[in-house]
């Protein structure tokens, strides 16, 4: 129970195409995260799965049944909204009971389910309060509780953590993951926060401008981004991407630096983009990269160095510890050629 | 006391009296007198007997002539204080002929004295003519009028709240073809007063057979564009996500209206309810036109009919005016906060 | 207050809630059959049906009505006369003398209403502005003072009319006060100019609080720091009023003026109960003219009344459009901020 399939989902508002043909399968029990910059269509896609919006074209199947024409109420899904959308005039208990009452469930059963969910989420003392009397984190739990009691085929979470402060977000992230393990239910989670995506997801769907850029596990996305967009989007701070000319196993940048490519990677000569994650750079006297330090962000265990290589090429490096560098100093850096990503002129990954 | 003085002598700040301080005191002082005075005068007059009402100059408080039961006379006789050559004494009047009254001493009822009426004044004490209030209910149709007014006010308000909120819900929470048109139509008719459509409205109400029916008064008033407009503005502020959450919770659209949107619109509904009660209770022109039979009169029409009679029976009329005023005054005292906030926020009236 | 709530809940909410639950099953069925648009229709229907029959339809047939004559009530039975009714209303042999007009009563009502509108609105606005300014002086017990002015607003026009009829009576308390001060009593409601002034005064008395309240809301919305800045600049109080208070109050002021105009054009109930249009025709206003021609007089002429109401409606539409335009302008200004 809980396998969701999307077939060529399209959505247009007038002349604007918001979704341009999405095919996706979410397996039973999987936690899939939709991630992408704002306006990429991830929330629209989720709302279409929920049944709150209708696709212009395409088919949505749940467990092999076509549910496209069904209303939101009849899809057996539960959703946690960004604003939580708790009914402000009802107590926490009534909020959780509302959906169950609508299906004419016996009162005893409703009480059991609420008690169970409240215990799981540790909101038992809050049951008789109203949403207005709760803190952000508590509201978040109630919103999740309201979804849990429904025992839905799948949970849809629309940026559920974005209204929490940073600290709470980290702990709720962990709790949501734990909850997913415990319930074993299918979950689709929408976020614009890539850290959230990386830490929670079984698989991540990266969306841009209404198209799926890549679907894969978090580590695969990080280690083998399929294209320039994913490479730049996943990972913080962002990957260094430099345009250059490939020639016989190395790449020459505009500023003249010659950078070696991974051994065994066949790259045809011509324009390419070279990508190196800031974490993979290390100080190396006489290394291939030379740059002038512009700014140092000392974080304690590591330091983020912003530097210029000339000819408009910037450089970001995350160096371990607290290197003794001053603004304006010239550093020399090197890297393991195996950690380099190469993208062709079309932006797709080579090799 | 010093606090009262402190309050009374509060000034704009700083020392000395600014002319604006003086002006403020004068303005507010006369306002208390001019605004409250007339209503108070009405209330006090309403307790006076007909004889007292025709006195000029009037007394501030209602008085009643004292009467005594005198041996040998069936009905109680009014007491007068008489002052003439024989000194000052209290006598009861038996009858009056021209300027001369035949009077007796209650202690000595057999001897009738003839007294010039210029030499006597009635003996009176403060007393309330409750009959002014009771008689119209017992002897005239005011009980019926009151019932009619309560019926019109109650039913019209309930229907107004229900139909207006349903329409406002549809116009604020659904996208559909023609929505903009309906909204513009409603705003456009916001300011169309009854007086502009009086004649054709009468023919329509007459056509559906509601002349001299309270429903003929109720129906034309309940589809108020004002109510729809006010509720819609309020409902627009309810986040759509709440409705979507309810839809995900398997709620029907009717349940969304009834269990989610309506409770959340309560503040606006309260304002509309208060205003509707006041409007319908006070309505005059339209009931005046539709209702021409006594038994369907509302209080306002009944009052006007009484006031229009050749010999206005002021003692009853004043008492009934007070009765008509009471619900509105109660609404005002208990719900002033809502009303002032409602007006300041929406320009309703 | 909880007691009231509980009683209300038991008496009103409980049976309604029961009714609503009862309706749920058939409405769910309807929703399934007719979809969301079906539900929209359901929600709109009661209000729009009543609205159409009792507001829109009369508006439309009023125009047809004004082009007919006769005593028959229903439109199909009436005789079409084109613009004759309007002609009758507006035709005068000599426009400098209203008595030469065919429908002199209409012209008198028009003149009275015009005079009334100008005088009443001017005085009302001035009084409301002064009141609002005074109430805005950070008074103690503001809610009490607000109540003082607002109290008559909710009174029914009939009650207002009767209260003042009693006070202005020949043997009323006002004359008693005059006599007490050694002056002659005045026949307030039986002398033309006094009766007209009484109509103006009484309507101002009844509506002052409403307009003062809107203006007060506008005054209270003016940020305090503007005044503090002006004080720091050493601005004189009069200058502060003309250069800060009044310009910032202008949006509310315009709304208030137009609203007051719209109300004044329709003046009826209070004046009717107070003077009955008299003495003679001294306080005959347009609405009363329409009412009497259409319903009350022996020679009923609904077509003529409809024509007069259309002319009045025209004035009101102009005023309403003015208000909407001003409202939109204010809105735009608000957005700029």
UniProtKB/TrEMBL annotation, chain A:
<dbReference type="Pfam" id="PF08402">
    <property type="entry name" value="TOBE_2"/>
</dbReference>
<keyword id="KW-0547">Nucleotide-binding</keyword>
<keyword id="KW-0067">ATP-binding</keyword>
<dbReference type="InterPro" id="IPR027417">
    <property type="entry name" value="P-loop_NTPase"/>
</dbReference>
<dbReference type="GO" id="GO:0055052">
    <property type="term" value="C:ATP-binding cassette (ABC) transporter complex, substrate-binding subunit-containing"/>
</dbReference>
<keyword id="KW-0813">Transport</keyword>
<dbReference type="GO" id="GO:0016887">
    <property type="term" value="F:ATP hydrolysis activity"/>
</dbReference>
<feature type="domain" description="ABC transporter">
    <location>
        <begin position="4"/>
        <end position="234"/>
    </location>
</feature>
<dbReference type="GO" id="GO:1990060">
    <property type="term" value="C:maltose transport complex"/>
</dbReference>
<dbReference type="InterPro" id="IPR013611">
    <property type="entry name" value="Transp-assoc_OB_typ2"/>
</dbReference>
<dbReference type="InterPro" id="IPR003593">
    <property type="entry name" value="AAA+_ATPase"/>
</dbReference>
<dbReference type="GO" id="GO:0005524">
    <property type="term" value="F:ATP binding"/>
</dbReference>
<dbReference type="Pfam" id="PF00005">
    <property type="entry name" value="ABC_tran"/>
</dbReference>
<dbReference type="InterPro" id="IPR012340">
    <property type="entry name" value="NA-bd_OB-fold"/>
</dbReference>
<dbReference type="InterPro" id="IPR017871">
    <property type="entry name" value="ABC_transporter-like_CS"/>
</dbReference>
<dbReference type="InterPro" id="IPR047641">
    <property type="entry name" value="ABC_transpr_MalK/UgpC-like"/>
</dbReference>
<dbReference type="GO" id="GO:0015423">
    <property type="term" value="F:ABC-type maltose transporter activity"/>
</dbReference>
<comment type="similarity">
    <text>Belongs to the ABC transporter superfamily.</text>
</comment>
<protein>
    <submittedName>
        <fullName>sn-glycerol-3-phosphate ABC transporter ATP-binding protein UgpC</fullName>
    </submittedName>
</protein>
<dbReference type="InterPro" id="IPR015855">
    <property type="entry name" value="ABC_transpr_MalK-like"/>
</dbReference>
<dbReference type="InterPro" id="IPR003439">
    <property type="entry name" value="ABC_transporter-like_ATP-bd"/>
</dbReference>
<dbReference type="InterPro" id="IPR008995">
    <property type="entry name" value="Mo/tungstate-bd_C_term_dom"/>
</dbReference>
From TrEMBL, chain B:
<feature type="transmembrane region" description="Helical">
    <location>
        <begin position="150"/>
        <end position="169"/>
    </location>
</feature>
<keyword id="KW-0813">Transport</keyword>
<comment type="similarity">
    <text>Belongs to the binding-protein-dependent transport system permease family.</text>
</comment>
<dbReference type="InterPro" id="IPR000515">
    <property type="entry name" value="MetI-like"/>
</dbReference>
<dbReference type="Pfam" id="PF00528">
    <property type="entry name" value="BPD_transp_1"/>
</dbReference>
<dbReference type="GO" id="GO:0005886">
    <property type="term" value="C:plasma membrane"/>
</dbReference>
<keyword id="KW-0472">Membrane</keyword>
<feature type="domain" description="ABC transmembrane type-1">
    <location>
        <begin position="146"/>
        <end position="335"/>
    </location>
</feature>
<feature type="transmembrane region" description="Helical">
    <location>
        <begin position="181"/>
        <end position="202"/>
    </location>
</feature>
<feature type="transmembrane region" description="Helical">
    <location>
        <begin position="314"/>
        <end position="335"/>
    </location>
</feature>
<keyword id="KW-0812">Transmembrane</keyword>
<protein>
    <submittedName>
        <fullName>Carbohydrate ABC transporter permease</fullName>
    </submittedName>
</protein>
<feature type="transmembrane region" description="Helical">
    <location>
        <begin position="214"/>
        <end position="235"/>
    </location>
</feature>
<keyword id="KW-1003">Cell membrane</keyword>
<dbReference type="GO" id="GO:0055085">
    <property type="term" value="P:transmembrane transport"/>
</dbReference>
<feature type="transmembrane region" description="Helical">
    <location>
        <begin position="256"/>
        <end position="279"/>
    </location>
</feature>
<keyword id="KW-1133">Transmembrane helix</keyword>
<dbReference type="InterPro" id="IPR035906">
    <property type="entry name" value="MetI-like_sf"/>
</dbReference>
<feature type="transmembrane region" description="Helical">
    <location>
        <begin position="21"/>
        <end position="44"/>
    </location>
</feature>
